[in-house]
Structure formats: C-alpha cells, structure tokens
Amino acid sequence: GGVAAFQWGAAESGRVSAFDASTLDPADAEKWLDRPRPPPSHAVRGTNTETEEERARRLGAAGVRDQATGKLARRAITGKFQKYTLGEIIPITHDVTLLRFLLPSDDDVFSLRPCSTLQAFAKLGQTAMDEVMRFYTPVTVNGTKGYFDVIVKRKQNGVMTGVLTGLHVGDTMMFRSVAFKLTYEANRWDSVGMIAGGTGFTPMLQVINHGLRDGAVDRQGRPDKTKLSLLYCNRTERHILLRGLFDRLQKEYPDRFKMRYSIDAPINPETWNGYTGYITEEMVRETMPPPSRDGKSVILVCGPDQLLYHAAGVPLSVGHTLSSGKRLQPTAPDLTNLSDIGGVLGKMGYEASQVYKF
C-alpha cells in the first residue's frame, strides 16, 4: 500500500498542503529532524499577542535564557498535562509516522533531561476507565525552538496509536513530561551500551544526542567522554529507522560511538553486513560493555515486548501492561525494572544494577 501524504499548515489560510512521501527511505528520515521546515505559522498555532512583561510573569521560574538572544524562553513541557497542537505529519513507512507538535510559542525551547519521556493522554469517554495514556520519547534535540517530534508506530488494536495516527494538522494532544529513575549525566559511566528494537530506539537517541551533540559537561565542567554503543534490531534492512543519522554520528564520533545492526532476515543477503537473527551472547559480547559490578558501565534496553523478554527476561505480561496504553502507566514508568535480569543478559551474568529497561 502507499504511504499517506506529508502534511503541514499553509501559511495564511490554515489550509493543508501535501507532499508525496511514498518514496521516503526510512533510513533517510533524519532529514526531517536535522533540516526541519519552519513550524507552521499562527494560522495553525494561533496568534500570540503577549507582551514581553506578560511573558516573563507567566514563565516565572520555568523560564530559561536563550543563549543567542538573552531573552527569556520557556522550557515548555512540564510535569502537568498540557495541550499541544499538531503542526506536521511526516510518514516514514506504511505504519510509522513522525508527528511534529508545536510548542505554545516559536520562542519556546524544547528541553528534556535524559532520561525523560513524554506521556500522551486521551480521554475517550466520561469515566476514568476511558482514559488512555502512553509514553513516547521525542527524537528532538534539546535547544530546538518551537516544536518537538515523536515517532509513532501504528499497532493493530492499539488504542493510543489509533488516536495519534488519526489526528489532523491543527488538532491538539495532551502531553506531560515524566522522568525515569535513571538519569544520564556526562562521565557518570565510562561506557553505556544500548539494545533497541523498532521504535524503541527513541530513548537511546535521547542519550546519544545529549552525550554527543548537546555539549554535555560533568559537574566539574569537563566535556563528556562516555563511550556509547547501540545494537539496533529490526525485521529487515528496510525497517531500520534513521539509519542515515546513526551511521553519520558513528563517522563523526568514531572514538565515542559504535553502531551495529541486527535484522531477522535480510532482503539482500549478498549486501547485508550486519548481524542476522535474534540477539545472541556473541552479539552482546561484541557490542556491549562486559558484566561488571564496578558501576562504570550500564546497558539500556528498549523495544517490543518480545525483545525485552528475550534480551533481559522482562515478563511478557509486564511488557504488555506498558505497551497497551492502560491507565496503569502514570505510576509505573519503571515497571519493567521490578523483575530480575533474565534472558540473554541474565545468562551472561549481568545484574540488575547494570541493566536498565525502558
């Protein structure tokens, strides 16, 4: 089937224009992140008549200074649910879409501390049982003005993904920020290994962006030197999202970032030079920091329920609780870390203190 058209708000009339994205390669989808279109104008966002004084009073302690202008800018996503307007729809594959949501003002600054995520909220009826919530980690670099991007995979019978993929430009969605118990800090570890599958790469990209691209420094002001590695698992080479971005980062930071891929079955076996099949002990040994109790390394895992079960022993019932969009999510962003380490990592001797599961 074809891929839906890319949409954005027209400048003055609020009409929606379309760009044929049916030939967009998932590996090249980074161009929408690194070379973004300007956010849609006030026709979608709404006209802001606020004065600088009124803005300063409203922002209060939540304001951050724009380094370029010195003006007060808002760290526009907080722990309280707020409405954000959908400004652009960018299809990547037949079932994966990038949604660009607009911050309240063009001058508002996107900033999430790693590791944090956004929780989407939709009320589908009149009772609490009709409220649906799900976590989505944005793929936007901190410091971006005016918008943030989330990548959504359409799931069969997925309640929240049905809501999000049914939105049109100009519609609104409720989000709030939620912090995980694990916090990435410059030089906290010597090495960070990451295992991801499908759209589970998004919290890993947040760590990678912060470590490599945000100019992160530690508490003594020293630049981040943490070594990062990512093992990214997908069905085929055509399903690898943002491969162009990951490959480019590996070339730009060869001493700090190592990228490896594993797929279930290659479309072109003669040209595929990555791993094939489910995660094995050999793959882990070649890509991840070894088991250790010295606190100098950590492994992050995120992906489909089957990957979490196979790699780290997360019970499928626990994974389904988080992936199904149930109301349990507000109090359980770290539910996957309540179980012991099992799976491939458990067999290799990794302990809970060295593995964090999103």
Automatic annotation (TrEMBL):
Which SUPFAM superfamilies is this protein grouped with? Answer: Ferredoxin reductase-like, C-terminal NADP-linked domain (SSF52343), Riboflavin synthase domain-like (SSF63380)
Q: Name one GO cellular component term.
A: membrane
List, separated by semicolons, the cofactors it needs.
FAD
Compartments annotated for it: namely:
Membrane
**What GO molecular-function term can you cite, just one?**
cytochrome-b5 reductase activity, acting on NAD(P)H
Segments forming domain FAD-binding FR-type:
79-203
Which InterPro entries would you find in this protein's record? CBR-like, Cbr1-like_FAD-bd_dom, FAD-bd_FR_type, FNR_nucleotide-bd, OxRdtase_FAD/NAD-bd, Riboflavin_synthase-like_b-brl
Q: Name one Pfam family in it.
A: NAD_binding_1
Residues annotated for FAD binding in this entry: 134, 136, 151, 153, 160, 202
Q: Where is this region: Disordered?
A: 27-60
Where does the record place Basic and acidic residues bias? 28-37
Record-linked Gene3D superfamilies: Nucleotide-binding domain of ferredoxin-NADP reductase (FNR) module, Translation factors
Sorted UniProt keywords:
FAD, Flavoprotein, Membrane, Oxidoreductase, Transmembrane, Transmembrane helix
Tell me what this protein is called: FAD-binding FR-type domain-containing protein
Starting at the broadest rank, the lineage of the source organism is:
Eukaryota, Discoba, Euglenozoa, Kinetoplastea, Metakinetoplastina
